[in-house]
Amino acid sequence: MTGKLFDSGDLIYDGQARTGLLRFTRPSGPLLISTPVFMPVGTRATVKALWHRELEEMGYDLILANTYHLFLRPGHETIAALGGLHDFQGWSDHAILTDSGGYQVFSLADRVRFFDEGVEFQSHVDGARHLFTPELVFDVQCAFGSDIMMMLDDCPPADADRVRLQEALRRTHLWCDRVIEHRRQRIESGAFDQKRQSLFGIFQGGLDRELRERSMDYIAARPFDGIAIGGLSVGESRPELHAMLEWLGSRMDPERPRYLMGVGTVPDILEAVRAGVDMFDCVLPTRNARNGQFLTGLGKRNVRNARFARSDEPPDPECTCPVCARYSLGYIRHLFSVGEMLGPMLATHHNLHFFSHFMEALRAAIKAGEYEPFYERWKKIPF
Description:
The chain has helices spanning 52-57, 67-72, 76-81, 85-88, 102-107, 134-144, 162-189, 209-220, 238-248, 266-274, 284-289, 322-326, 329-337, 342-367, 371-379, and strands at 12-14, 17-26, 29-35, 37-40, 62-66, 95-99, 112-114, 119-122, 129-132, 148-150, 198-203, 226-229, 258-260, 279-282, 293-296, 299-302.
């Protein structure tokens, strides 16, 4: 473990909840990102319906891109030829985390075959078959120039039996050791830049606490720069998710950033931060925005609702974003009703502005030693 990404000496705790800094090196100089942090999802090198400039203006410095989709189109070789993923999408001074494609493979259940060598899948684009190995996935992310890279893991569904969970652990641990060795070789050959790129491990185990602990200990014993909680938010109930997070809290390695993959609703973030999680990503704020849902300090508001047809109120009277400063619910509902693209654009901007300010307030509450009152206040809001 290099220790370059995260210095546990920066951490401020309030119970298990904590705030700290992720440290990146970009061409413009050092980049510090406060945690807990929410990462907007830019699946295909774009956060849908937004300019990158808007993300910058909202204070986002770290976004997520998807290895599976970018591997298929336009391909990692094309992206590398165009200067890497940062230059490709005009995000040169900021940071990018790329996932391994493991979750997308999980979601393609009927097109996938698992082997110890890797996972074979059929492209949803043209039907071609590909084999993702731990080594290939690492090399693809190297070609992207990702600041944070994720190892390939075997992500079973929430209803998997213990036999399937044990097989996922065995295979994930096998791939873990292979990618660690592959990284060592790439460092020696000069193909991996330790000063700028980090590699996260992922532990599995479903809702089985004995398997969770076994996998967590196995991954934590390897020289990863961060540890990700995989295999949650894959179909289990919210109470089951929250109970697992509470149980994991005091057991997770305090020296490295902790990333809860694919989780990003307000109730789930509240529980996860309370358990000591540092990093989040989720498509829901942007996907739901495209369906007319606004996130507000009073909960969710669906602008498609007929009662907003003549409303001259902003989506959120307490919000300071440019959408709420200028546009009414009645106007935005009209945009959605007639299929104008500005509607989803406005809703997406608002929702990510909401998340940026929510995370900022959450960090401030931890620093002030007031996370529990913050938690109790927000968990009552109907999200």
